[in-house]
Structure formats: structure tokens, C-alpha cells
Specification:
The complex is a heterodimer of chains A (225) and B (226).
Chain A: H1 8-16, E1 24-27, H2 31-34, E2 46-49, E3 53-59, E4 77-85, H3 88-96, E5 102-106, E6 109-111, E7 116-117, H4 133-139, E8 143-146, E9 158-159, E10 174-176, E11 180-185, E12 188-194, H5 200-205, E13 211-212
Parallel strand pairs in A: 1-2, 1-5, 5-8, 6-9, 8-10, 12-13
Antiparallel strand pairs in A: 2-3, 3-4, 6-7, 10-11, 11-12
Helix pairs in contact in A: 3-4
Chain B: H1 11-14, E1 23-26, H2 36-45, E2 50-53, H3 65-69, E3 73-78, H4 86-93, E4 98-101, H5 104-115, E5 120-123, E6 137-140, E7 143-149, E8 153-164, E9 169-170, H6 179-185, E10 186-197, E11 216-219
Helix pairs in contact in B: 5-6
Classes of the chains: A alpha/beta (225), B alpha/beta (226).
């Protein structure tokens, strides 16, 4: 039985299954941005960008780029039928005003009550940057955080209380990691799925707050090579 | 009545009277919609001690980078200074430039408010975070909000696709971004465009920024930094 944690691409592949057909979705930097490539066939997603686009399609092919048509990571993209352009403040009417169905952000820490820290590592060099993350976190109808379950040095990232600078409080609905799918509920964190080959006890050992689950926790429907 | 001539012969003529200490907004996001020719003109003009407002702080020498490189900027309000903002980061580390970091949607909403005559507004963004430090907090209908001040500037430097001779503006795709709202929030708005057309040519249904917000127009070939 495999004991390999999911890759970043596999986290994105799992996260893509959370997107309902026809949803308007914003993807943040990092693993969230990889998710667009894994939307299942037959599902249409209207991807939103903070610079004023709803209905982004795949990346533009080499030689066909239009550098006025870029996503929030400066990548030249295409449009799908039904797309529209608008201004930055209107793009944030959508984020803050609760008009987007699902938003995905990367995470440095998520707390058991759903607080998110994702914009600055304490003590890191440089000015840091908030970008659109705070507006998105506050306004998303459903906020999914995709991230590695633990940091590079092994520290737990799902914690009782975030000690990194916060992005927003009580905003996260679901966390998808290389080990688990976890929902934030009023009763605490609920373990919905584990990565193939892992047990709930193994996930709990790498998670600071207590995870709620009962009986056999299903494995994520992701094929591990 | 003959409309005031807003069309300038050169970028340098547009920026010729920008004084030291001016506050200036700059449009642009993700490499698109930056008024790069006006920025280069301001670098040549050399106005110092500027207070600038922009989503980010430059890409190498490009976008706002050249103004940081020339040490023309004293204070910046931004949402995402950016990993490519080499000169800003160096000066920030040395304490030579002051930074106000603002959530991006709040940055443009503060501009929108200023342009619309609203001095301040309550917002849910940043509640419980360091963005809330020093701001009035109030519970409205059971939820926590913080008071955000509107933000204006002496000048907005923006980029549009087309202008007519009155100053009505049309933008192109994602290059619209911050440009229209900045035009409403500055005392004077200077725009660089790809093309100027005759009045009556642009479809009124498609005009994003009406001429009332535009003061100076110059045609300048798009410069882009990736």
C-alpha cells in the first residue's frame, strides 16, 4: 500500500472535484492556480480574475498571447463563451460582496475555527503583499484552502490558533491537503477524506486540533502511481 | 462651444508641471494597463518626494521600478508590492520608503468612495487582522466592520486603448483594471492611449470613462514589461 503524500498537482486534482458545474470561481496563487487544469470533462467553470475578467479559459498558446488578457499571475489566458470584462473595483464587488460561488486560496496556517493566515511569514524578508486575498477570504460563499499539510520543516499548519498574521477570521470552509480533506464546522474540524494509504490516526498526528470522524474515513478518489 | 484642447504633443509635455511632493495614482495590473510612457516621462522630469498609489511597486526597471530606482518616491500605498519590485524592496529594507499595505479590493473601493464624495465607509475586510490596527470598529447588524478612509490624489496617470478628442475612454480587456476608478479619484487625470479618434466615433454604450474625468491625453506606443 502506497504511503506517498499527494503531490501539489494531486491536491489540485482533488480540489477540482469541489467545483460544481457552472460555478464562478477565483483561484489564488500556488496550488489553487493549478486546479483549473483538472476541472472534469463536461464541467464548465467561469474563472474570475481580480483585474476584471469573468470567464477565463485555458492559458493562451505560445504565439497567440494577448498581454492585455492576463490572469492575476500575469499569465496570458483565453476566454470562454459568456466571458465579460469589467474594472478592478467591480471585480472586488464580486469577491467581497459574496457573488463568487467558490474561492480557493493557498495557506500558511488554518485554525480550528477557520481563521486563515496566508500572506506573510513572520520574520520573512521584504514588505510582504496582501493582494486580493483578504477581500476574497471575507467574501467567498465557500472558501477552500489548498496547501501541504505540514510545513517544509515539519511544523503543523492546521493549528488551534494561528500565530502568523491573519488574512481573515472564521472564513475557511474546507482544507484540502496532501493528506486529507477537512471541513470546518461549528463543532470543530471534521475529517472527510484521507489520502490513499493513510489512516485518520496518521492525519491526526500531524494536525494540532482534534479531528472529528466516525467509522471508516473514505480515501480521496485520486490514483497514486 | 469649442472644447478645451486636452491633447498634448508629447509625454514630456503632459508631465512638465508635476511638482515635487505630488501624490499620484498609477493604473495597471499584471503587466497590463500601465501608463509606462507617462512613468518614463516622469522619470525624465525628475519630480521628487512623490507619494504614489498603485497596486504594485514595479517590475525591475519597468512600470514604477524606474521611479524607485531614481529615488523619486517617498511613500507608497499598494496592495501587492510584488517579487519583481527590486528597487522598492531594497529601499523598503533600508527604511528609505514608507509603505501602506492595503487589501486590493479596499484600495480600489477607497478610490471609488473618494471619487463619489464618500469620505469613509465600513468594511468587513481586515477585521481581526493587522489591517484593522488603529481603525474604528463597529458592529452593524451583528457583524464586525472597520472604518476605511477614502483615498484621492493630485494626479492619476492611466492607460486606455482609445480616447476621442473630448477624452471619452475605451479600454482593452484586462488592461482596464484600476484605470477608470483612478480617473475619478484624482484632481487631474492624464491618460496615454494607443489611438485618438474623432468625437462621435466611439459607441456611447461602450465608453467606460466619460470625458468629464480626463484632463490630458497623449498618444504613446504601448510599453510593456513582463
Amino acid at each position: 500500500m502506497s504511503k506517498r503524500r499527494l503531490t501539489r498537482e494531486q491536491i489540485a486534482e482533488r480540489a477540482a472535484l469541489e467545483l460544481p458545474d457552472g460555478a464562478c470561481v477565483n483561484l489564488g496563487w500556488g496550488i489553487p492556480n493549478l486546479t483549473a487544469a483538472y476541472v472534469p470533462k463536461g464541467v464548465t467553470i467561469y474563472f474570475h480574475s481580480e483585474n476584471g475578467i469573468l470567464g477565463m479559459g485555458p492559458r493562451a498558446k505560445k504565439g497567440e498571447e494577448d498581454f492585455d488578457l492576463v490572469d492575476a499571475m500575469k499569465v496570458p489566458v483565453t476566454l470562454i463563451p459568456g466571458a465579460s470584462f469589467f474594472a478592478q473595483e467591480a471585480a472586488h464587488v464580486m469577491t467581497r460582496g459574496g457573488h463568487l460561488d467558490v474561492c480557493m486560496l493557498g495557506g500558511l496556517q488554518v485554525s480550528e475555527r477557520g481563521d486563515l493566515a496566508n500572506w506573510r511569514v513572520p520574520g520573512a524578508k521584504g514588505a510582504g503583499g496582501i493582494g486580493g486575498a483578504m477581500d476574497i477570504a471575507v467574501g467567498a460563499r465557500r472558501l477552500i484552502v489548498t496547501m501541504e499539510h505540514t510545513s517544509k520543516d515539519g511544523a503543523r499548519k492546521i493549528v488551534k490558533r494561528c500565530d502568523y498574521p491573519l488574512t481573515a477570521v472564521e472564513c475557511v470552509n474546507t482544507v484540502i491537503t496532501d493528506l486529507a480533506v477537512i471541513d470546518v464546522t461549528p463543532e470543530g474540524l471534521s475529517l472527510r477524506e484521507v489520502a490513499p494509504g493513510f489512516t485518520p490516526e496518521e492525519v491526526q498526528a500531524l494536525t494540532e486540533p482534534t479531528l472529528r470522524y466516525s467509522g471508516k474515513v473514505p480515501e480521496m478518489p485520486i490514483k497514486i502511481q | 462651444m469649442t472644447p478645451k484642447n486636452k491633447i498634448y504633443p508629447s509625454v514630456d509635455a503632459v508631465v512638465a508641471d508635476i511638482p515635487d511632493g505630488a501624490s499620484i495614482m498609477f493604473g495597471g495590473f499584471g503587466g497590463a494597463g500601465f501608463p509606462n510612457n507617462l512613468i518614463q516621462g516622469l522619470a525624465r522630469k525628475g519630480s521628487k518626494n512623490l507619494s504614489v498609489i498603485s497596486n504594485n511597486c514595479g517590475t525591475g526597471d519597468g512600470e514604477l521600478g524606474i521611479l524607485f530606482k531614481n529615488q523619486q518616491i517617498r511613500r507608497v500605498t499598494a496592495a501587492f508590492p510584488g517579487p519583481g519590485a527590486t528597487y522598492f524592496q531594497q529601499q523598503f529594507d533600508k527604511g528609505e520608503v514608507e509603505l501602506e499595505l492595503v487589501p486590493q479590493g479596499i484600495l480600489c473601493e477607497r478610490m471609488r468612495a473618494h471619487g463619489a464624495g464618500i469620505p469613509a465607509f465600513f468594511s468587513p475586510v481586515g477585521v481581526g487582522t493587522e489591517v484593522a490596527n488603529g481603525k474604528e470598529e463597529r458592529v452593524i447588524r451583528g457583524k464586525r466592520y472597520i472604518l476605511e478612509q477614502s483615498i484621492g490624489a493630485d494626479y492619476a496617470f492611466i492607460k486606455a486603448h482609445q480616447a476621442d478628442r473630448l477624452g471619452n475612454l475605451v479600454f482593452r480587456k484586462g488592461a482596464r483594471n484600476f484605470n477608470p476608478v483612478m480617473a475619478t479619484a484624482a484632481r487631474m487625470t492624464f491618460v496615454e492611449v494607443d489611438e485618438i479618434v474623432e468625437v462621435g466615433t466611439l459607441d456611447p454604450e461602450n465608453i467606460v470613462t466619460p470625458f468629464i474625468y480626463v484632463d490630458r491625453i497623449v498618444v504613446a506606443k504601448g510599453l510593456r514589461y513582463v
